[in-house]
Amino acid sequence: MAYIISDECISCGACAAECPVGAISEGDGKYVIDADACVECGACAGVCPVSAPAAE
After folding, report:
1. pLDDT band at 1; cut points 50, 70, 90
2. pLDDT at 56 over 90
3. Which neighbouring-strand residues pair with 26?
4. Cβ–Cβ under 8 Å, residues 1 and 55
């Protein structure tokens, strides 16, 4: 399952910079992950300061 970003997101952008496939973009108030592009590597979860990305 693709990762999703919870409402805990503080829009810092650390996850987007870390994503190896560019599946993360800035959304309305928080970052969002394109489920079709996500390769479930977990890199985003590893760098998030508030643990917003999680496996669906």
Report:
1. confident
2. no
3. 31
4. yes
Q: Quick one: CA dihedral 25, 31, 28, 12, positive or negative?
A: negative
Which residues, including other chains, have CB under 8 Å from residue 30's CB and lie 6 or more apart?
A: 5, 7, 9, 11, 52
Q: How far apart are CA 43 and CA 7, in angstroms?
A: 19
6-46 confidence digits (pLDDT tens) = 999 999 999 999 999 999 999 999 999 999 999 999 999 99
Write out the two tokens for 44. Answer: 């985003």
